[in-house]
Each structure stands twice: as structure tokens, then as C-alpha cells.
Amino acid sequence: MFKNRFTEILGVRHPIQCGTMMFISSAEFVAACANAGIFSCLASAMFPGEKKLSDEIKKIRKLTDKPFGVNISLFPGLLPMPVEICLEILAGEGVGILETAGNNPAPHRQLIKDYKFLHVHKCARLRDALKAEALGVDLVALVGTECGGHPSMEDVTSLVLVPEASSRLKIPLIAGGGFCDGKTLVAGLALGAEGILMGTRFLNTVEAPIHPAHKEKFVQAQETDTVVIQRSIGSATRVLKNPWAEKILEMEKKGATLEELLPFIGGRKAAPAWVDGNEEAVFACGQVVGRTKETLSIKELVDNIMTEAEEVRKRIQTL
User: Fold this and answer.
1) Is the pLDDT at 221 greater than 70, yes or no?
2) Looking at 41-45, 203-207, 261-265, which range is the least confident one?
3) Where are the alpha helices (DSSP H) in 78-152?
4) Domains (ranges, CATH) in the chain?
5) CA separation for the pair 290, 303 (Å, rounded)
6) Residue 313 contacts residue 186 (beta carbons within 8 Å)
7) Is the pTM of this model over 0.85?
8) Alpha carbon distance 192, 229 (integer Å)
9) What is the C-alpha separation between 138 and 312, in angstroms, rounded?
């Protein structure tokens, strides 16, 4: 058993968070994570309108009695309703744990505090993690350049970022970027994190609501099969390497404007593509896609991670 501030504060069995993934983190997926003993969050941006979001939260509670959170994305234009309305809905539904990501949570901190949410903030730069701590955030997740989705433009790896952050932060640190199994869990804890953030590995689970063809591509992918797009517009995004992503890179190389890129990078194409198997979209995933070799249930995956972590701990103790 691995018990620390992460497991105690969040009330979960294992020091693992499944990263919040747009189009993936639905009620069924979040409940499966909770029942496996790990922390995860509902992606509120997927459920516009008070009724849809409230109904999805209620659905989670029918599927699990374990702790879970709700993510509010602070990326401009991504949330379908004002942050204040989202917070009001979560408070009304009795949600206790809030995750924010994508921008500075400072404008919302007072309201978050008033509603008494336990606040987890995800970021990709050390200075943003330190700022979050100064704002009163309870836990901070920090991701290295290996991560899927949005790393920082600074390209700092987890191996460098995590130990530096853990030496400067007083609040619990959740480390993301490159974590996918028991070996990397123990490594993250050794670097000073109190939990690890895994997203890409959970894409290839039975419960992930994506097309089997994509899951098979994840199994076949190598660690070199991701690319970082959108650097030219200051919004670096690591995605699976495919013809669509390579087309975007070529457009950026030729100096394409944001307006020219939007039809290719917009989430509207990715949402149905995850489900129908269409490859004409970008699919956020991290470099650990190259270490995904099979499709398991979330419980099987978590059990395997924790078994391997215990084996690693015992091996290290013999040194």
C-alpha cells in the first residue's frame, strides 16, 4: 500500500490520478476510475447547460460511492458557460473536489474558497505551480513535456521538472508526463511527487469510449509516434503522429495563420473522430503511447500498476 497526503486528502486508495480527457472523461469512465481506487474528474466542458452537467454528476453517484472531482477548463472559449455558473452547479450538486486547468485560477479563487471546494490545479510550468500554491490551491499537478495534450513551450522533461518542483512546493505535488505503470509510479514518488497523473495509458482501456481502431493504433505506436503541433500560435499540443497532424505541421512551417489552422485543430473534428474511427483529426496523447501494449479494463490496469510498484519497491529495498 502506498499512503501519503495525496491518498489521504483525496480519499482514494492509490496515489494515481487519471488525467481529465475531453471527449473521454464521462460519468461511466470517471466512475470506473473511482471504483478502481484512483482519482479522476468529469470533464464539465463536455456537458453544456446546467441540466446536462447536473445529470452527469448524478449518474456518477449512481455508479460509485467513491470520491471523484469535476474539471473546469480555463482555456479561453472551451467552457460552454461562465465559470461562475459551473461552480454554482457543482456546489449545488455537492461536489467536493474541483480541478482547474488551462489558465490562471486567480480570478475564481475567492468563489472557490467560498464554496469550500478542495482545489486541484493543473499546469505545465514551475512558476505557475508556485503561483497556484500562493493562491491557496490545495494540490497542484505539474506536467513535463512528455505529456499528451498541452505541455509548456519550455520543453522541460518530468525528470527535471518534478524534483525541482517538489523541493520548492509545500502543498502535495502530482507529477504528469511519462507516467504509465508501476515503475514510473515509484519513480514519480522518488522524485518527490505524492501522486502521478496518467492520461494516455487510460485511453487504451475497455471503458474508454473511443473506436477500437484507435486503440489498436495505440498498441502499435512507438514512443516516437507523437508530434507537437501549434507551437506557432503559442499553444503547444502533443498529439499522435498521423497524416492530419503532419499536415498541420506543414501548414505551420509555411506560416499559416490561426484562422487558417482553426479548421484543422478545432475540437469539433476530434470529438466525433474519437468515436467513429475517422483519422482526419488530431488525437492528444503522450510519448508513453509507445509503452501501451494491450487493452485492459481500468481495474486490471490499476491492479497491474500497483502490483508492479510493490515489486519495484521490494527490489529497491534489497539494494
Assistant:
1) yes
2) 261-265
3) 83-92, 109-114, 126-135
4) 5-209+294-317 (3.20.20.70), 212-287 (no CATH)
5) 20
6) yes
7) yes
8) 30
9) 29
